[in-house]
Amino acid sequence: MKFKDYHPIINFIFFTCVIVLSLVFNHYLYILVAYISSFAYSLKLNRYKALIFNLFCIFFGVIFPFYYASYNHFGVTDIYVNFIDNRITLESFVYGCSLSIRFIIMLQWYSCMNKIFTTDKVGYLFGKVSPLLSLYFSIFLRSVPQIKGKIEKMRAGQIVINRNCKRGWFINNFKKRMRFFSIVIGYLIENFFEKTASMKNRGYSLKNKTHFSIYRFSNKDRILVLFIFSLLTMVWVGFVFEQTYIIYDPEIIIKPFTLGSALFLTSYFLFLNLPIILEYVNEIKFKRFR
């Protein structure tokens, strides 16, 4: 059973925890584990698109520490003095690296979350809070790709009848763009009234409206929840014993690495890699029973 096939609440708990913990923990070992885990899972889900996106994020991660160290001068270990006599310190540079990598980790987890959370799952989560809000949100998610595809068709139609906005004089192009813009606005208004009439006919404004879903909390979901919270408990104990963060100001102070530190780090590693472990276990079972 793949991770995306589990209950939406489990998916929501996992991604909420990994994003929050990845931003809070600034220990270099925890950052390294989080980066490798998010990088691997994004590659597993999105393949080459994830590789291109992650490599682009690395470029940002290289540039940001130099920018951060140029404007934040805390620390006692000087690296050099720039042309305006500002100290560039080792502590500020290392902390800038920590910030940039944690931000990249958040983006990589967010790309995984976009792949896992379908419209049905989002509608289910919002439907528990407000069925009407869930309905509007589902309509929005459905309308965006429809409108985008319709605009592409209208643009192709304009090119066919020799109204390409990218050719000709500036004034003529401006007139063509305004004409195309008015066509798009007219379509959006028409689409809005059509959906409004459809929703009224289906009784969206009735009281005591509920949200239908196909998701049920099974025994597999309960076992996975217990395992997740047992790992989170170990990670929380490591946080209480100050094993998950480093002091950077005024100097870098790292707690000694002990057997307990290894246990906390292993629990964090298992928690972050839980989805990809489930993916590979499911593939092995599929090949065995095929």
Short summary:
This protein is mainly alpha-helical.
Outline the structure in words:
This protein is mainly α and 290 residues long. The protein has 2 domains: 196 residues, no CATH class; 72 residues, no CATH class. Helices cover 73% and strands 2% of the residues. It has a two-stranded antiparallel sheet with strand order 1-2. A hairpin with a 5-residue loop joins strand 1 and strand 2. The longest helix is centred in the middle third of the chain and has 32 residues. The chain is globular and about 70 Å long. The mean pLDDT is 81.
Helices, strands, pairings?
Layout: H1 8-24, H2 28-46, H3 48-71, E1 78-81, E2 87-89, H4 90-116, H5 119-129, H6 131-160, H7 170-201, H8 219-240, H9 259-272, H10 274-289
Antiparallel strand pairs: 1-2
Helix pairs in contact: 1-4, 2-3, 2-4, 2-9, 3-4, 5-6, 6-7, 8-9
Key traits:
290 residues; mainly alpha; 2 domains; two-stranded antiparallel ribbon; 10 helices; 73% helix; globular
